[in-house]
Design a protein that fits this description.
The chain is an alpha+beta fold. It is built from five helices and four strands. β1 (2-6) and β2 (9-13) form a beta hairpin. α4 (75-87) crosses α5.
Length: 122
């Protein structure tokens, strides 16, 4: 929270709202393959993802549910986010930097992202 003193009047301005933080991208959700969702869930469980991400709350990186609220569940965004997992990312969620994961296969990264996007309505 930020306190601003203006014209002898104190005003409190809260941090950005969650909608500003999420910056949802408009688009249609497509049905996700339930087998791919389950595979992604298992792959994430055995990865280092939970070192920086949590399901519901921000940690070092954005919550998985916030990621799911930002991106439509479609092939284009699944491929885009999978590339970010592999190459690393910075700036999409403010200051956190996601380190690259070059050892993760593209198909596995896509399964992981599919699981994350499946959390949208949970």
């Amino acid at each position: 929270m930020l306190l601003i003193n203006s014209c002898n009047e104190k005003k409190t301005i809260s941090e950005k709202s969650s909608t500003d933080y999420i910056k949802a991208i408009l688009g249609d959700d497509h049905e996700l393959d339930s087998i791919l969702v389950k595979k992604g869930e298992v792959l994430i469980a055995y990865s280092d993802c939970y070192d920086c991400h949590k399901s519901e709350n921000r940690a070092k990186g954005p919550a998985f549910r916030d990621i799911a609220k930002r991106y439509p569940a479609d092939k284009t965004y699944i491929e885009h986010l999978a590339r970010q997992v592999i190459r690393g990312s910075k700036g999409a969620w403010g200051y956190p930097v996601m380190s690259p994961h070059p050892d993760i296969k593209k198909e596995d990264a896509e399964a992981m992202v599919t699981f994350i996007l499946s959390l949208r309505n949970q």
